């Protein structure tokens, strides 16, 4: 078993390692990068719902403002997506 | 079908690019994206021509069904998008631009519902182009409402803040604006492709198409347009 593993490891070249590192980095980048925006959008929507429950007649303006806020919070996740797309498709 | 989709997955990030050499410059274009965006424009045009035919009726008659549907759509557009401008008069003046942008992005997103077609907004060049157009429009209205002095004040008011302002408003803003639309549409495309390739393409694709194609396409078009409204509104706002 150990010998088999050693033989398998012998066939791994530098290019394969780079590929592995690219995939790992892209996955980690997207995963960690969307943590913050996830929490942020949760906060935004929670407070918008709170306000709507308190003042149902303000629903329309609150909804538009919420969407704008969500979009701004999302921006960091978009940058993470940009980085992982560059890692996957552009980086050699 | 499956092999085809598998091949599509393999070549996901790659594009077929046509290159023209004009003078010393090499112009690279993706013909597929251009054709798809032209189809989206034609769809919007067909909608406009259809509405022109359907709405042609004497003013004394009671409004027909198309008129009612259009009234509801215009009310929604007015209250949800144009109502976010600080002055109602300016909102009414921006209706052609904002409405066209919304309809074009919506048509582009919904193109992926048609068999054999993809959404042109799944190409970053299209979305970044739209975002740059919005950037230019925002600066045009900034200069028109506040003058060149206002433009200088916007960027160089505290001089030590100007590098950050230039970076965030001229580079990061169109980039995030365009990539938001691209990222969402592209992610939807990848998800649907993977589901189609890996699962039996019988029941699942219908639901996926309904949720992702129609719902997300509408939401993303709305988000893109409402951000446009917010950016232009920031530019014309008096401090």
Name a few traits of the molecule.
A: 92 residues; mainly alpha; F1FO ATP Synthase; B: 239 residues; two-stranded antiparallel ribbon; 7 helices; globular
Task: Explain how this protein is built.
The complex is a heterodimer of chains A (92) and B (239). In chain A, α2 runs antiparallel to α4 and α3 packs antiparallel against α4. Chain A is built from four helices and no strands. Chain A has a single domain, classed as F1FO ATP Synthase, CATH 1.20.20. Chain A is mostly helical and 92 residues long. Chain B has 239 residues and is mainly alpha-helical. Chain B has one domain. Chain B is 74% helix and 4% strand. A two-stranded antiparallel sheet of chain B has the order 1-2. In chain B, β1 and β2 form a beta hairpin. The longest helix of chain B has 37 residues. The radius of gyration of chain B is 21 Å and the shape is globular. Chains A and B meet through α4 of A and α3, α6 and α7 of B.
């Amino acid at each position: 078993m150990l010998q088999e593993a050693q033989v398998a490891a012998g066939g791994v070249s530098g290019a394969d390692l780079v590929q592995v590192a690219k995939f790992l980095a892209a996955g980690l980048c997207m995963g960690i990068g969307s943590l913050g925006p996830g929490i942020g959008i949760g906060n935004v929507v929670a407070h918008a719902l709170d306000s709507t429950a308190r003042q149902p007649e303000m629903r329309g303006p609150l909804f538009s403002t919420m969407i704008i806020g969500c979009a701004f919070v999302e921006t960091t996740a978009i940058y993470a997506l940009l980085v992982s797309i560059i890692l996957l498709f552009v980086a050699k | 079908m499956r092999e085809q989709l598998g091949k599509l997955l393999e070549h996901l990030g790659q594009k077929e690019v046509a290159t023209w050499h004009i003078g010393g410059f090499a112009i690279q274009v993706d013909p597929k994206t251009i054709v798809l965006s032209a189809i989206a424009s034609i769809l919007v045009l067909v909608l406009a021509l259809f509405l022109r035919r359907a709405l042609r009726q004497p003013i004394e008659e009671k409004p027909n069904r198309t008129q009612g549907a259009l009234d509801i759509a215009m009310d929604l557009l007015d209250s949800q998008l144009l109502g976010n401008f600080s002055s109602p008069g300016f909102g009414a003046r921006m209706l052609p631009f904002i409405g066209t942008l919304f309809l074009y992005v919506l048509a582009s997103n919904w193109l992926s519902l048609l068999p054999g077609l993809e959404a042109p907004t799944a190409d970053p060049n299209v979305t970044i182009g739209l975002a740059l157009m919005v950037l230019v429009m925002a600066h045009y209205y900034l200069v028109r409402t506040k003058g060149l002095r206002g433009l200088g004040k916007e960027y160089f008011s505290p001089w030590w803040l100007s590098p950050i302002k230039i970076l965030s408003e001229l580079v990061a803003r169109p980039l995030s604006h365009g990539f938001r639309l691209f990222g969402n549409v592209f992610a939807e495309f990848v998800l649907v492709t993977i589901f189609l390739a890996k699962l039996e393409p019988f029941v699942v694709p219908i639901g996926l198409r309904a949720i992702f194609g129609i719902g997300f396409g509408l939401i993303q078009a709305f988000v893109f347009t409402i951000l446009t409204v917010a950016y232009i509104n920031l530019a014309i706002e008096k401090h």
